[in-house]
Amino acid sequence: RAQHFTNYNAVMPPCIIAAGLGELTRTGDCTAHPRLGFRHKVAAVTTDLPLAPDKPIDFGMLDFCRVCGKCADNCPSGTITKDKEPVEYNGYLRWNTDSKKCTIFRATNKEGSSCGRCMKVCPWDSKEQSWFHEAGTWIGSHGEASSSLLKKIDDM
């Protein structure tokens, strides 16, 4: 069965994480890819065929999000939590977010029907393809101390 936008029977963030296509982010309903950041769309095909499973990946996003919090600081609707730790929700970890606040803000935003500020301010989600950005995300993926350094560099 095809699982795509407006037709999901599966919750995509835990599927993405379990398949090794991304890692948890503070935004709650989004995952980040190590190279693409938030800038990817996901669809899936569910099947009962026997397939070899992939493994989740760990490129340091969880530690980075614990330290950074720029998305929460810049969220105009207050949707994204500033909690230090994610919580278990339906069998997977996620940060508590209030998706309803986000939806209402996007629907009533006089500047347009979108926001995306969380994606715009995330140091991991730069559209810049440069050695500087790649070096920064490499640094940011190596623990909380280096994550703090990446956030400070991004703030410059």
Automatic annotation (TrEMBL):
| UniProt GO MF annotations | iron-sulfur cluster binding; metal ion binding
Q: Which InterPro entries match?
A: 4Fe4S_Fe-S-bd (IPR017896), 4Fe4S_Fe_S_CS (IPR017900), RDH (IPR012832)
- Matching Gene3D superfamilies, A to Z? 3.30.70.20
Q: Where is the 4Fe-4S ferredoxin-type domain?
A: 55-85
Q: Which SUPFAM superfamilies does this entry report, sorted A to Z?
A: 4Fe-4S ferredoxins (SSF54862)
Its subcellular locations are: Cell envelope
Q: Name one Pfam family in it.
A: Fer4_7
State whether keyword Metal-binding applies: yes
**Highest taxon above the source species:** Bacteria
Tell me where it mainly resides: other
Any one cellular-component term (Gene Ontology):
cell envelope
Which keywords label this protein?
Iron, Iron-sulfur, Membrane, Metal-binding, Signal
Does the UniProt entry include the keyword Magnesium?
Answer: no
Which NCBIfam families does the record match to this protein? Answer: RDH
Can you name this protein?
A: Putative CprA
The species is uncultured microorganism DCP/6-38
Q: What is the lineage of its organism?
A: Bacteria, environmental samples
